[in-house]
Amino acid sequence: MEVKIVKEDDRQVVYITGRVDTVTAPELEKAVAPLLGEIGIKIVFDCTGLEYVSSSGLRVVLGSHKIVVAKGGKFALRGLSREVKSVFDLTGFSKILTIE
Predict the structure, then answer these.
(1) What pTM was estimated for this model as a whole?
(2) Nearest CA to 5 among 28, 37, 38?
(3) CA triplet 59, 62, 63: central angle to 5 degrees?
């Protein structure tokens, strides 16, 4: 897995490439942690290069969303492949999260 964070306009975009699973989820969590402390931040997880997400990866996504929203920010996902989106749909996360 590779994570790259880029400021685009007024949002922080987190580009995720590869697989987010039990082994790599802590790396993603560590990479986004500094962003989560900001009040009113706007974060987008760009999943264009995401090949697979496990329950550990879903936990990081949902946890990040909860922190951002609690601090008055906005959180969204974009670029979900059909396979990855089906995981979010099956778990009900598609109803909770903003998907661009």
Answers:
(1) 0.94
(2) 28
(3) 80
